[in-house]
Design a protein that fits this description.
This protein is an alpha+beta fold and 90 residues long. The chain has two helices and four strands, in the order βαββαβ. GO terms for molecular function: signal sequence binding.
Length: 90
């Protein structure tokens, strides 16, 4: 029985406050991203749900390279394993 995994990660992205809305829209254009909070000071909480760790690091790099992003850092990373075959298939 094949096992698959999902990587759940959270990031804090610090943005120049005057560009907060623009950067949030750019982040949401990236696959598997959700925004779960923000502050007036330009900090954004981003949650990723990806198939492997490579997607996590790629997404961090993409966000960090957006114009007006000051820093991006990983706060939390968890790997969940599950069977790819559902109970109905057994």
């Amino acid at each position: 029985m094949a096992q698959e995994e999902v990587h759940i990660s959270s990031l804090v992205v610090h943005v120049k406050p005057e560009y907060l809305e623009v950067v949030k829209a750019q982040i949401l254009e990236l696959p598997n991203t959700e925004i779960h909070g923000e502050s007036e000071e330009g900090k954004v909480i981003v949650v990723l749900e990806t198939a492997n760790q490579g997607y996590v690091t790629d997404t961090i790099d993409k966000i960090n390279n957006l114009e007006h992003v000051l820093t991006t850092f990983l706060v939390y990373h968890q790997i969940e394993h599950f069977d790819s075959q559902s109970e109905d298939d057994s």
